[in-house]
Amino acid sequence: MKQATLCVLMDKESNKLLLGMKKRGFGQGKYNGFGGKIETNETIKEAAVRELYEEAKVRASPGDIEKVGKLNFVFSNKQEWNQIVHVFIVRSWEGSPGESEEMKPEWFDIKDIPFHKMWADDKHWLPLIIQGKKLEADFVFDKDNETIKKLNIRETI
């Protein structure tokens, strides 16, 4: 399966997190964290940092991001969408989030996350990482590529 990254920026002082509205491509019209494909000769953390800058215009170093999850996605009707996503929490960065060709960033209060405008899996794992948990999860989407058919979430150390 192909591998990808996903970064969620959290501002502990304001109790907010930064999500982006996907403007094009995979996940268009949904809020999500910032991330994408890992390029050749790039580590997972380097890819996460690069994608974060490309999509949200903020800079973080590999030391600023903390891996908190590994999500395995299987799409019953779109095998080419199957992927392993490495999830990172970012608590320290430089710059102010800005809009890119792909994403429009927006801050949300942690108690007002727009799960109704996100992938169906997000409501299952995102609250756990916000609570400080680390996890590994498997999600199998049904034929509509939207509904979760099966899920399995395991807390890790």
If you had to describe this structure to a student in words, what would you say it looks like?
This protein has 157 residues and is mainly beta. The protein has 2 helices and 8 strands. Strands 1, 2, 3, 4, 5, 6, 7 and 8 form an 8-stranded mixed beta sheet that branches. It is globular. The two termini are 24 Å apart.
Write a concise synopsis of the structure shown:
Helices cover 14% and strands 39% of the residues. The protein has 157 residues and is mainly beta.
Q: Report the portion of residues in β strands.
A: 35-45%
Number of strands: 8
Computed CA radius of gyration, to the nearest angstrom: 15 Å
**DSSP helix count?**
2
Low-confidence spans: pLDDT under 50, at least 5 residues?
none
Which sequence of SSEs, written as H and E, runs from N to C?
Answer: EEEHEEEHEE
Mean pLDDT: 95
Could you outline the blueprint of secondary structure elements for this entry?
Elements: E1 2-11, E2 16-22, E3 31-32, H1 44-56, E4 65-75, E5 83-90, E6 103-109, H2 122-130, E7 134-141, E8 148-156
Parallel strand pairs: 1-5, 4-7
Antiparallel strand pairs: 1-2, 2-3, 2-6, 4-5, 7-8
